[in-house]
Specification:
Number of domains: 2
Helix content: 25-40%
Oligomer: single chain
Mean pLDDT: 94
CATH architecture of the largest domain: 3-Layer(bba) Sandwich
Radius of gyration: 21 Å
CATH superfamily of the largest domain: FAD/NAD(P)-binding domain
CATH topology of the largest domain: FAD/NAD(P)-binding domain
Strand content: 25-35%
Number of helices: 8
CATH class of the largest domain: Alpha Beta
Low-confidence stretches: none
């Protein structure tokens, strides 16, 4: 009996982690990505390894997923992470009043959190606003997006997976009412070819609706953009968050030699054509400087906006969409057989998303294979090209 072949569309964090999971389960795996690895949402995000603290009050499901995956990633890929922790700080009386609710949310979501003295927080982070009223330490961290994805892909390759970047899906191939593969345009050779597959995983994030439409299916993915401003100097050691419900400009993430201020949130229809309004940039800079006045002295290195692949909820503002994830088996929803979409979530929860969609893939193919990714260390991203 031949080994089933799964074609994964998308080599962001979710597609990369799914390739690793399915290869470990013994399936034949091919990943196609229209650009470079991590060139979509994953490569233009905050680089934040979430503790779940941002969501522990208003999105506890998403918060629990974050802290559970945070702890797993620390074990399986420490070479990619900077485990520098984070501080949630209260800037005014309203923030301070939110502190007890925040600490209760952390406890309910099993997020290790401890209040520290303001003097200690200012000693750790001397560029913090000196007028902060409280500080809580949580296990936030930082990752490098390309290395994050390539570590998963290097391990998948070691287990037999084929990875093809600059290979864009132009259409899906049908056999009757079922999908049997995809037509791929290879941007390096300029040639179009067909790749057959027993099952396709649509892991294209904010672009998931476009791929699903090729399968004559709908997914409730709401591309939701956010502006981030990179300052060309690292002013903080830890991730600095404002202690209130997620809002615009309430976080400064240190990554390499930059400080990234973020982020806003609004729905978009074209993830490839996001305009960045100047007022959004100004809002980020102003809000970031409230947390860390030193940012006024920094030089703006760049501005970026990218669409998050959030699961839409009726009558809910984009800012309040849950950060949880979902796998959609389109056959069971009355659509074409042979394709499954995974979307939502965050880079922090990519491994968990991969486990969920891989379980669905195996069930659809009638395969009994346990997930091993919680305990399997990833090899170095440096091994990808070897």
């Amino acid at each position: 009996m031949s080994v089933p072949h799964v074609l994964i569309i998308g080599a962001g964090s979710t597609g990369s982690a799914t390739a690793h999971d399915l290869a470990l389960r013994g399936l034949r795996v091919t990943v196609v990505e229209r650009g470079e690895i991590a060139s979509g949402t994953t490569g233009r995000n905050h680089c934040l390894l979430h503790s779940g603290g941002r969501y522990c009050v208003n999105d506890q499901e998403g918060a629990i997923e974050c802290i559970e995956e945070n702890l797993i990633l620390r074990r399986i890929m420490p070479h990619v992470l900077e485990m520098n922790d984070g501080l949630f700080v209260a800037l005014d009386d309203e923030d301070y009043a939110f502190k007890e609710q925040f600490l209760a949310g952390c406890a309910e979501c099993r997020i290790p959190a401890r209040e520290i003295q303001v003097a200690q927080a200012l000693k750790i982070e001397p560029f913090l606003n000196p007028r902060i009223k409280a500080a809580v330490q949580v296990p936030d961290g930082v990752f490098e997006p390309w290395r994050f994805c390539v570590s998963f892909l290097a391990t998948a390759k070691k287990n037999g997976a084929t990875i093809r970047n600059f290979a864009e899906v132009q259409d899906l191939i049908f056999q009757g009412n079922a999908i049997a593969g995809a037509k791929i345009f290879d941007q390096r050779t300029g040639k179009t070819e067909s790749i057959g597959a027993d099952l396709i995983v649509n892991a294209t994030g904010a672009w998931a609706g476009m791929v699903a439409a090729m399968a004559k299916a709908d997914v409730p993915v709401a591309p939701t953009a956010g502006v981030m401003v990179a300052i060309g100097k690292r002013f903080n050691n830890m991730v600095i968050n404002r202690m209130h419900k997620p809002h615009d400009g309430d976080i400064v993430v240190p990554i390499r030699n930059t400080s990234i201020i973020g982020t806003t949130s609004w729905r978009v229809t074209q993830p490839d054509a996001i305009e960045i309004p100047q007022d959004q940039i100004d809002k980020m800079i102003e809000a970031g400087q409230l947390l860390m006045p030193i940012l006024k002295k920094g030089v703006q290195r760049g501005v970026m906006a990218v669409a998050r692949p959030l699961i839409a909820s009726a009558n809910v503002d984009a800012r309040d969409f849950s950060r949880t994830f979902e796998a959609f088996n389109h056959r069971k929803q009355g659509g074409a057989a042979g394709i499954i979409t995974i979307s939502g979530g965050k880079t922090t929860t990519a491994r968990g998303m991969a486990e969920k969609v891989s379980d669905v893939v195996c069930a659809e193919l009638g395969i009994h294979a346990e997930c091993k990714t919680k305990t399997t260390p990833l090899i170095s991203y440096r091994e990808f090209y070897n």
